[in-house]
Amino acid sequence: MPLFAGLGYALLNSFGLAGIISNGFTLSYWHIFFTSGEFEKSFLYSFILTLVILLLSVIISLIICISYNSNVNTGKSAYLFYIPLAIPFMVAGFLTYQLFNPTGFFSRVAYSLHLTSSHSNFPDITNDALSIGIVITHVFIATAFLTILFAGIFKNEKIEELAILATSIGANRREINRRVVIPIILKKTFPSITLYGIFILSSYEIPLLLGRQTPQFISVAIANKFQKFNLQDIPLAYCMAVVYTFIIIFILFYLSKRNKLYHEND
Amino acid sequence: MKTIKGGFLGLLFGMLIFPILFMLMLAFSLTWRYPQLIPESFSLHTFLNIFSSGSNILGGLINSLLIAIVVTLVAVPLAFYISKQVAANSKRKYLILCAYLPFTLSPVIYAACLNYYFVLAGLNGTIFGVILAQLIIVFPYNIILFITHWNTQINSYSDLTATLGGNRIQTYFKVLIPLSKTILLIAFFQSFLISWFEFGLTNFIGIGQVNTLTIRVYQYINEANVQLAALSSLILILPPLFMLWLNKRIMFHQI
Amino acid sequence: MFVKIQNIKKTFVGQPVLHDVSFQLEQHATLSILGKSGCGKTTLLKIIAGLLHPDEGSVVINDIKVNEIIANKRDIVYIYQEPLLFPHLNVFENIAFGLRLRKLDNNIIDRLVIEMINELGLKGHEKKIPTQLSGGQKQRVSFGRAIIVKPKLLLLDEPFGNLDVETRTSMQLLFKQISEIFGITSLIVTHDLKEAILMGDKFGFMEDGFLKIYSNKTDFIQDNNTGVQKEIEFWKNL
Predict the structure, then answer these.
(1) What pTM did the predictor assign?
(2) d(Cα C32, Cα C197) in Å, to the nearest integer?
C-alpha cells in the first residue's frame, strides 16, 4: 500500500538513511525531535483546539436538533444545513478572515454601532493567540455536519417515539433529553464524531490561513518544515510525520478494536 | 416563547446563507474603504476578468474539473468492485483500518511522505501526478463508503443471479449496479467534491505548476486580491452546492 | 438416480456443520427435509447450488459430478425464504430474467413468460413492481422466475416461511401443481412438519448436521425424532 511505502521512506529519512543530505544511519534527528519539544507543542495545541471545536459543535448541534427537529429533517430548510458543507476549508478560512479581521465586516458593524472608534479597537481574532478564528470556522462547518448527522439518528432511531414512550412513563422534557435523546445520539455517532475530530486535527487550509506562528497546527508545522529551504529540517519533518502517523494509526486501531469502525451489516 | 424560538431559527438560517451573500458582495465590489459597511461601488470588471488570460481562473477551473472527473471515474468503479472482495475477505477489519488511514492522515503530510516516489517517477508538477496522488486518498474513501453496502441481502441477490445462470459481468451490470444506484451516485458526488476541494496535496505534488481553482483562491488570498479570491471562491462552491442538493434529494427519496 | 449427494462434509471455523450427508433422488420427485434452524440445511443447499464448497463429498446430477462446476453453470436454482425479487424490474421482467441471461429470442421470452404468468394466476399484474405485490404474489413471481429456466434441480429454503397460514397453504398447493406440470425435481428444506409432509414424495430429517432419509412416509411419521407422533398426541389429548 502506498501509505506503507511512504511511511517506510519517511522512517528511513528520519534515521538519515535516505534523502538529499543523508550521511548514513544517525539518531541525531530523533534527538532533536525529542529535545526541541516542537512536535509536542504543536500536537498538544492542535489536539486541545480540536477538542474545543468538537465540544462546541456537538453542544450546538444537539441544541439545534432537539429544539428544531422538524426543521432540520424535513422541508426546504433542511437543505440550508448543507450549505456550509459546500464551502471548502480554504474558502471558509478566507471568509472568516474577511469577516473578523480588524478591518473586516464585523469590525465595520461594530464601528457603525459605535461600539468601537477605530479598527484598532476591534479584537483581532484572526491569527491570534487563542486561535478563535480557527475555532469559529471549524465550528461553523462541523456544526452543520453534526446537525445533519444527529438529525439522521433522530429519524432512524425513532427518537421522537422513544420520547413519547418516556413521557408516558413519567419523564419530563429535560429528563428525556438527558436520559434518552442525548445518550442515544452520542452513542450512535461516537465513531463519526471521532473520525471528524481526526479530520479537524489533520486540517491544513484553515490553520494555514488563520493560525498563529507558534505553535502551529500540526499539519502546517510539518508541511512548513518540508517546504522551507533549510534541508536540515526535512529529516526532522519526517520524524514528525512518522510519529503523527503512528498516533493516528493508534486511534484508528483503538476504534477498530471496539468495533466502531465497521458495523457488520445483516 | 414560540416567537423567540422562531426568531432564533431565522437567525440560524440567516447565518447559513450569509457567507454566500457576503462572498457575492466581495466578488463584485470595486472599492470598500473602512469603515463603510457595504462597498461604495460595484463592478463587473472582476467577473469579466475571468475570461482574460491574465487571471488564470479559467485554466484553474478546467484543471480542477478535469482532475475531479478523472479521479471520480477511476476511483468509484474500482472501489465498487474491490470493496465487494474486501467485504468477503476474512481479514476485512484490518483492510478497512488500512483504508481509513490515507484520508484521516492530513493529505499534505501524506503527500510529503510520498513525494520522494513521485519525484523518482517524474510525476511531480504534472496533472497526472496530482490525479494519482488524489486517487490514493479518494479510492480508500470509496472502499469505506461501499463496504457497508455489501450486506447479506445484496449478497443473496448475487448468489440468486448465479444460480439463475448469470456470469460475473451479467451479475454486476444487470443486478448489482441497478441495486446500488443510490450509493453509487453518492460516491460519485462525494468523490468529486473531495477532489474538487483538495488543496494541500495538490499544492505539494503540483509544486505550483498545476493550476487548480483552490490554488488560485490561495494565491489571490496571499496577494490580498479580495475580489478575485471571492469570485474564484464562488465558482469553487457552485458545483458542490448543486451536487449537495442533488445528493440530498436522492437520499430523501431513499428514506 | 438423478440426484446423488455423497458423503458431504463441511466445517465452519472448526465447527462441523455437515456430517457425512448422503441421499439420492429420482427425477421429477420432491425430497422434503425437516429440520430446525441451525441444523445445517441451508449450508447443504448452498453446497448443492455451488455457492459453497464442501470439505469432502460430491454432488452428482444426472451422472455428472458437478463439484468443480461453478454455480451459474450448474442449472440448479436456489430459492430463498424471502422472494428476493429485483426491485428495479416489474413482474414480467423478473420472471423473464433468467431467460434474458441466456439471450433467448425476445418473441420466445414473451411467449414463455406470458404462459408462466397465466399458470401462476398473475394475469393483469405483469407491469407491477415488487412493492405493489402481496407476499403470496411475490412468492409466485419468485417461483415463476426459477421454474421458467427449467432447472435440473430446484432448491427451496423455507420458501413459505414469511407467509400467513392461509397463503402458505395455497402456495404449497400451487407449488405441487406447477412442479407436476413442469416436471421439476426439487429439494425443500423446512422446519414446518405439515409442509414437509404435504410437499414431499420422499422425506428426510436433519439434526446437528446429520441427515436421515426415510424409505417411505410411514417411517417418517413413525419416527419419534420427527415430532409427528407428538403432534398427533397433542391433537388427540385436546
Answers:
(1) 0.81
(2) 7
